[in-house]
Amino acid sequence: MRFINPIPFVRDIKLSRYFYEKTLGLKVLEDAGSFVLFETGFAIHDGAALEQTVWGEALGAGEIYGRRNLLLYFEHDDVNSAFESIAPHVELIHPVERQAWGQRVFRFYDPDGHAVEVGEPQRTIQPSG
Hints:
By secondary structure, the protein is of the alpha/beta class. The chain has two domains: 1-64, Roll (2,3-Dihydroxybiphenyl 1,2-Dioxygenase, domain 1), CATH 3.10.180.10; 66-129, 2,3-Dihydroxybiphenyl 1,2-Dioxygenase, domain 1, CATH 3.10.180. It is 22% helix and 29% strand. It has three helices and eight strands; from the N terminus they run E-H-E-E-E-H-E-H-E-E-E. The strands form two sheets. Strands 1-4-3-2 form a four-stranded mixed sheet. Strands 5-8-7-6 form a four-stranded mixed sheet, covered by helices on one side. The model has no long low-confidence stretch (mean pLDDT 92).
């Protein structure tokens, strides 16, 4: 058994693909229409189509995604440049700040309200002291 990846449900697959491809800079590996897989292993799926596949029915437009119970985590070698590039295009949760464990991160919402975190790679964290 091995974990592969979470697949967030999205309302508008084209908008979400554009967001992750153009705003975050992820490269598309596969686009199957209702499912998009990026080179990093991250994937998104059209919510209504996946609801139909999993539960046998679409739950409807009233279903809310991005419920503040999941954080999509990405790393970037230069967190400051990532912030400058991404921040003007998103609803920020907070700008770059150092976490208790020493890592510098910023957080924002994707088009469906999923919380996204971009942090410096864990290997670059310097012990505090």
